[in-house]
Amino acid sequence: MDEIPKDRLSGALRRGAVKKHVAAIHVSGKLTLLQRKLSNVLLLNAYDTLISRSRHQIDARTLCLMIGYNSNDMDTLKQSLRGLAETVAEWDMLDEKGQQEWGVSSLLSYAKLKGGICEYAYSPALAEKLHDPKVFALINLNIQRRFTSGHALALYENCYRFVRTGSTGWWPLDLFRRLMGIDGSSYYETFKHLNAKVIKPAVAEVNKTSNILVSPETRKTGRVVTEIRFRIKDNPQLAILDIDDGEAMRHGPVYARLRHLGVSDRLARQWLKAHGEDQVTAKLDYVETRKNVKSKVGYLSAALDGDFGAEQQRDDVPAPTSARAERLRRILEAVKARTPTQRDADRRLFLSQLQDSAARDDFSRHGWMSPLNAARIAEFWQEMSPGLFDGIEVEAV
Question: Are residues 252 and 380 in the same domain?
């Protein structure tokens, strides 16, 4: 499966180092590999507004694309969302005052599909825990797409947040079985079977596929294995798959300009990684000179995504009034209204439909303003947003 382009996808973010009291958020239930991937994409999409918004949205086609299955398979999507709503997340941790806190919540409080949009929400208590970088680490989507086993992805998720401490700590085997989604199976009550069918294959896939290396250690009571822990270290061969936290970027002048304009920390670092300081600076210079722009952040987003700027018209030159120009204006407005994750997915989805190398190259250079793909782009956005071109006279594109 093709990777999500590292230099463009907002992707997973590593936050601060795991501190002393690492919260244990355990997800019970037998999630499929698809459901685990879905859970990560939904969290990534909602992360920046987890606390400030009670509901989150992502269009269904984008969601399917990011997970890697047929974008028309709504039945599978419904089944996966139902599974997340029926899954329990449980935490047991020390709060800031050193008091023990236990809590339980469904993984999603609700989800619905309407008009091609997936709307969903987390309970306020769970949203607070998921947003805390000491508690939960977002998973790099490029890495999760490589997994073919649900057990391996589950092991990776539960080990990755301990990478800074080097060990998961000791887990009772009954807890480990819950984390792997195999509790209740008499077959896996026997450690020999658990080790052969779950632990060894999962460890092998994590070490081969991901940016960390894990090694299991067991502890016995008498002759019976009762606990397991995993030693964790960075995988130097696949470390490139991980996205650094962009700490160095935060000290640059271009980052400061973006933040002053109102761009979020995550989005500022994403744009700098994807486009480089020179291009972002050029677009900033252009956007800051524009008059009568309601949202300069939104305009900058469209400028970077559509690769327009210096070639655009001056404020004192009347804008073209042709149907073609109006169509393009509406397309760029539609692009601007979408989230960074959705814009990345839109570009990848459109590129996947281009078979001609010249057409692909032209789109890579010019984005949604690609002259060679004007007709295809109009058809794409008409399908994405029915009614987008209502009122525009028919004109060959």
Answer: yes
